[in-house]
Q: What sequence folds into this?
């Protein structure tokens, strides 16, 4: 009986058209050409071109935002982005003959496995057999990459981080890039690209020769990627399906507004969780609704009134207060579970700091809240600031004068080796 693949999220809409391709059809690389790094993100398409020199310099950067009505529909969003990419690059006058692309995290499975290695069978084949049984698809329908975790306490087994994606979907990404008349020279996961971008940090994750585990949180629009690194080595990776869009949905329900208005409100928030009522204010359970006069029996006891001025009604916050405590608590619990898994693998190494990247990392209250709940030292990484610039850089949709932590993965993709 023929088995129906269940991994892809694009449905039958992508089964038609001219995007089909295979990994064996990649053409020869043209020497000297600078590859273009492309990311099909939830918020939009990011395109970055760097020089191959050391340090790398920014040649061009462009961003095309996703229409608001497609943010909650991954299939239509990816179709729109794949169709719009050739016209977008032509309009921005970006000339490139080679390109690398990232597999969107929503179309990829990231899972830790403990396997028994064999000399005759590659670990990708062993991991692919386990993942295919869990996903309910044939092993040949998956493209699997494994990252062994060095020094992990796995009870005699090999701890590996497995990344799996639909072979058909990866072929469609390559086909969409070929429609732009470019040769595909690299397909990377967002986690590998993120790890590559972390190499731009000066300390390299170690101090005095001692490895310092670092937690990297990519706060994106549709998800949050969790990555733990020991120096240059990746030891943990996971994708949490909770991003800034979910915070906007909470605001939308509380204020009865549109998602666009909720996004604007979120950017203007200085407090994500309502502060507790001050000591001078009375609680609702004691005197009824805020702003209402006290009960009559309290007015009959003037000896209870002090000489201090009465609390003005303005001590109560006017208008509805935004409360994102539930979403942030869920996110904090999921990250804490990741840290506990890391502690089980490495009992003697504890994470002491967190590095924030991603578009949501520009919102300081979110980073402060997460770092405070995790009790870790925190910093925000701007990978674009770590790159050289020769004169005026042609850009579109991105302001290089301000911090751009959301460009970490596309920068890492541009710095990643060409693996095809």
A:
């Amino acid at each position: 009986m023929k088995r129906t693949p269940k991994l892809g999220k694009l449905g039958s809409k992508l089964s038609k058209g001219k995007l089909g391709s295979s990994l064996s059809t990649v053409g020869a690389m043209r020497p000297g050409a600078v590859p273009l790094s492309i990311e099909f993100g939830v918020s939009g398409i990011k395109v970055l071109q760097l020089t191959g020199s050391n340090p790398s310099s920014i040649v061009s950067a462009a961003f095309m935002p996703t229409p608001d009505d497609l943010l909650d529909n991954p299939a239509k969003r990816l179709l729109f982005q794949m169709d719009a990419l050739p016209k977008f690059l032509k309009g921005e006058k970006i000339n490139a003959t080679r390109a690398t692309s990232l597999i969107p995290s929503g179309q990829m499975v990231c899972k830790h496995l403990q396997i028994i290695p064999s000399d005759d069978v590659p670990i990708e084949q062993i991991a692919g057999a386990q993942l295919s049984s869990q996903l309910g698809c044939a092993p040949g329908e998956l493209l699997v990459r494994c990252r062994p975790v060095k020094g992990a306490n796995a009870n005699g087994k090999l701890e590996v981080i497995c990344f799996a994606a639909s072979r058909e979907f990866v072929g469609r990404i390559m086909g969409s890039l070929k429609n732009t008349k470019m040769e595909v020279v690299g397909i990377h996961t967002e986690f590998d690209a993120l790890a590559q971008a972390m190499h731009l940090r000066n300390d390299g994750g170690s101090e005095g020769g001692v490895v310092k585990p670092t937690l990297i949180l990519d706060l994106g629009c549709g998800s949050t990627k969790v990555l733990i690194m020991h120096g240059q080595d990746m030891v943990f990776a996971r994708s949490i399906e909770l991003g800034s869009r979910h915070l906007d949905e909470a605001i939308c329900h509380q204020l009865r507004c549109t998602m666009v208005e909720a996004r604007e409100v979120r950017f203007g928030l200085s407090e994500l969780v309502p502060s507790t009522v001050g000591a001078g204010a009375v609680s609702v359970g004691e005197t009824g609704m805020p702003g209402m006069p006290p009960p009559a029996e309290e007015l009959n006891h003037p000896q209870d009134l002090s000489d201090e001025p009465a609390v003005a009604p303005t001590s109560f916050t006017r208008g509805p207060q935004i409360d994102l405590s539930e979403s942030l608590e869920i996110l904090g619990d999921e990250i804490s579970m990741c840290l506990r898994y890391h502690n089980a693998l490495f009992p003697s190494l504890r994470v002491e700091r967190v590095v924030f990247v991603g578009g949501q990392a520009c919102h300081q209250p979110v980073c402060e809240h997460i770092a405070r709940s995790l009790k870790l030292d925190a910093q925000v990484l701007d990978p674009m600031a770590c790159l050289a610039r020769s004169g005026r850089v042609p850009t579109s949709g991105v302001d290089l004068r301000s911090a751009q932590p959301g460009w970490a993965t596309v920068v890492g993709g541009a710095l990643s080796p060409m693996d095809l």
